[in-house]
Structures are given as structure tokens and as C-alpha cells.
Amino acid sequence: MQAAPLSYGSDQSGLVCGYLFGRAAHGLAIEADEARAWLAAREAHPGEFIWLHFNLANTASEKWLHEHTRLPEEFHESLHEGPRSTRIEQADNTLIAVVNDVLHDFSFEPSDISTLWLSVDRQLVISARRKPLKAIDGLRNAVRNGENLRSSVELLIHLLRDQADGLLKIVRAAIARVDAIEDNLLAGKLNTKRASLGELRRVLVRLQRLLAPEPAALFRLLQRPPAWVAELDAQELRESTEEFSMVLADMASLQERIKLIQEEIAALVNEGNNRSLFVLTIVTVLALPINIIAGLLGMNVGGIPLAQDDGGFWIIVGIVASFTVAAGWLAFRRQRDLI
Question: What parts of the sequence cross the membrane (predicted)?
Fold first, then answer.
């Protein structure tokens, strides 16, 4: 019996989902064959556009895109680049977007971040990813539930806003964790290590570096968008970037707050170490007179004083106690002077 081919959550062409907009009051689900036929006659449907979402884990995806779409070469090249920050650029009158997002089971691990690639023109939106991501799946659910999109750029804007909302939830979760740590710190319960805070801070820095749109590319796009982009869409794209900026500002302030908590924990640890070292020093100082006198009296030589005296033991005890009290007074006096 012949085994069924692997699908990786997509069909044999690598298509995860496809929707046609402009023909009905909501997006119509289409298959790969229907998308292929529509693309062959796209000039006959000027008021429509389609969105095709591919899974790059299926090796058939790139082959299908090369055979049935005329995407800019920059899009195909970006599929094989390493991790880069989110950017939106214009190439051959097409918007090329590289969007970093978090996985569904995000748990504040750097490996829980992956990339989504998009190519957007007037009639065609292509999105591709290797791992399931929150923002794009949220967009899929919205379209599946009947939300209509008037243009391809509005689809991109919807995705960016979903990503900003997801990032805001991550920031809120991080703030809740930091609040709990800060409350325990104020209550004197130092049960959090600086290393765990450092890991959280590194993840936030990575999120900020990868998810923040590149300012130069975004500025060029907003200054001179493609001619087919409506003014309303361009304005909403500007507003979505402003929402991103607000979330990133909250993230930056959270990183600074984590840094201050780390410094406070380090100060408390140093204070505890100093206190322990002081106690050890006091014990050493108090034990010094008796150790010296015991060492002297323990020598096997003649002429040891008070050896034949009946009250010699108590005389030595008195001498040791006097020196011990004097040494303790000097040590505590110096500690008070330092404080």
C-alpha cells in the first residue's frame, strides 16, 4: 500500500488557505486549483484580489510560487535570509514585507520567534511561513468568521495590528511577572535570581529588535507608497506603525524597570554578603585573644607564668575576657563609624 504524502498542515501544493475578496460580502475560500485558474485570468477581475497562505515546511510551496506567480525576485531571496527585523519595502510596484512574530505556545524563549514573508500588490497577497504564528492565524480566523477586507493593503494593516496586539499581550504578561517579583522584593522575599530576570530582559530585547519595523524602509514607503495604494490605506498604515511605536516604548520602559530590579537584587545580595563577612570577622576577632594566649601557654617550655599558682586559671580567664571585650568594642566601634 502506498503511503500518503506529507502535508505539513497544507495541501500538496503547500497552500494552507486561500481566500478571494471582492466577489462577495466576505472572503470566499478557494483551493490551489481555483487560485491557479484565477491567477491565469487575473486581468479579467480588476475589482478582486486573492490571499494565498503557504507553509514553507512543505517543499512544494516555493515550486508552486515560481510556476504560477510572477513575484519579485526580492521576495524569493528574502525567503532564504537569516533573521532580520520587521521591514516593509517596495520592489517592482509590489510591497515586500518580512514580519517576525511569536509562536502559539510562546513561553518567553528566543526560539519561540519565527518569520512570516509577504508579497502584496493590488490583486495578490502571498504569505508564507515555516511555523504556525499567532498573528497570521488570527487573521485567518477573522476572515473565516466573515470579516471582509476592502483591499490587499488593508489585509497587511490587519496583520500588523494583530501582531501589535499580540506583542502588547506579551508585554502585559511580562509586566505581571515583573510586578510579582517586585512585590516579593519589597516584602523581603528574595526568591528570584538575577539570571531569570536577565533571561526575560534578553527575550524582550530580541523581541524589540526583531519585531520593530525598520525605520528607514518604513519611512521611504510611507513617503512614496505605490500608486495603487489608496490614501485611506496609506493613512491606516501610518497609524498601525504608530501603534507599534507605543508598544515598543512600553517594552523599552519595561526593560529599564527590569534593569533597576536587577541592580536592587544585586545590592541586597551584596549587603547580605557584607553582613555575613562582618559576622565572620567579629567571630575571628573575638577568638583571637584566647587563641594567642592558649598557644603561648601550651608551649612545652619552662618558665610558664602562674603554672604553680592555685588561682592561675582564673587569672588567665580574666585576662582573656578583658582582651576579648576590648577587641569586640574596637570592632563594633569601627562598624558604627562605617555606617
Answer: 277-299, 311-332
